[in-house]
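Could you join me in thinking about how sequence relates to backbone shape in a protein? Label the sequence line and the structure token line clearly, so we can match residues to local backbone shapes. Once you have written the record down, we can walk along the chain together.
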Amino acid sequence: MRNLIFISLVVILSASVFAQSRRVSPNAPQTAASTAAAMKDLTAEEMFNEANTYSKKKFAEFESKKIPFSDNLFKVTIKEQKQLAAKYAAALGARENLKAEDFYYVGMLNWLAENLDNATESFRKFLASENSAAEKTQTARSIVIVVAARRKNFDEAEKLLGEYLKAEPIKMTERARMETELAKSYRGEKNYAKAAAHADEAFRAFKAVFQDSASRARGLDDLHDAGMTVFEIYRDGGKTKEAENALDDLRKTAALVGSSSIYYGAVDEHIKYLIATNRKPLALELYRAAPAQAERDFTAKPLHEDVSRRLKKREKHYKLLGDVAPELAAIDRWFPGAPQTLASFRGRVVLLDFWATWCGPCIEAFPALIEWHQNYKPGGLEILGVTKYHGEAEGFPVDNAAELDFLQRFKKAHRLPYDFVVARDNTNQTAYGAGAIPTHVLIDRKGVIRYIETGTSASREEEIRAEIEKLLAEK
């Protein structure tokens, strides 16, 4: 029940003007499309309202019928919604003598269907008309700005943004998304000055609309992403003080909205940033002072205790970052290659993957690890799968010889091309703070630990990929 309610909110948001990613054909099969005769009786506004609320109604229907939620059900429903929007947009486009407001709804339907060219064309026709409703004009203008920003048509996007800000009403949700898209696109072009200006505005806008967000979870995600974007742009642009100020701002914002996870994330990032910029003593000082600061910032005891608990789990990692990697110890087998030391890998980038055969998230990371081995080994990447004897294989107690045989078969079955290191005990897990798995450690060409994180996800994989590329670029 809780999942369905949450997904309903996600779907409603995905149907808004700022959640587009893939074009849909109006000729795709429909499961809930009206007949041609019925479409003739619908106005442009009615078509848009039906398409825009389609997923919300479907998920309410699934909930009432107690149909179990699944990722496939979600994907199919969203696809149906986009197909319906595309069909209605095509039907409206074929009508003659469309009114100005009709072009607005044609644009909204195409936007919902993620047909960006058609959406932009319709919105431009609407904006060129006289006596357009002010609110619809602003929304149409905001979508054209988002599309222009994504396509790096900066002159057009900036011009229209100026027009948007001079008009009324200014919706902070629309402003946040426009500024975000511009910040991302300028960052992609390494124009950090322009990117930072728009990122700052986006963060301010997200803070302004947080209390009115339809979903607290979505609002917190937006705040976190916007605040981190500001930090990353200043960091990448070499603006050290501004980058630290951005993290401090995010920390204070987290305290105001009562989010211990965002608060911890801001502090954690600040500690790592200080280490990365050769200020480790200051980083460890910040780590030691953070629990007391959290207690001052949060009136609710569970919140500051959560921050302290999360930071305590990272203590070992903070102490390792920026230092030479400790040698792997208590190694019983190294296969298929010959035993080596980490010191022997100097001049190459090393990725240690702490894992176990029974760890589901570890197995989920295998495709990324295989890809990185294939793509980056020629440039200097070495991946080592680090595990230990657990005394079991496939759910049964076994001795070391049998477990080693199972590990070799496991490696072959999953087609893992990099070396495995098998230790007699958990000495290495303790040394690297890998009490939870998977834990990934990146060691640079000089043998210094530059990255340690636990867990796996799509965003984490992209984070590791970016770090690998950065370290490989260092000579």
Remarks:
- The radius of gyration is 26 Å.
